[in-house]
Amino acid sequence: MLESIIDTIDSLGYVGIALLMALENLIPPIPSELIMPLAGFTVTQGKMNFILVAIAGTIGSVLGATPWYFLGKYWGLNRTKQIADRYGKWLTLSGEDVVKAKVWFDRRGYTATAIGRLIPGIRTYISLPAGISKMPLVFFLIYSAIGTIFWVSFLTGAGYIFGANYEQVGMYLKPISTIVLIGIFSATIYWVIKRKVTS
Question: Could you tell me which residue ranges the VTT domain spans (predicted)?
Answer without folding.
Answer: 30-160
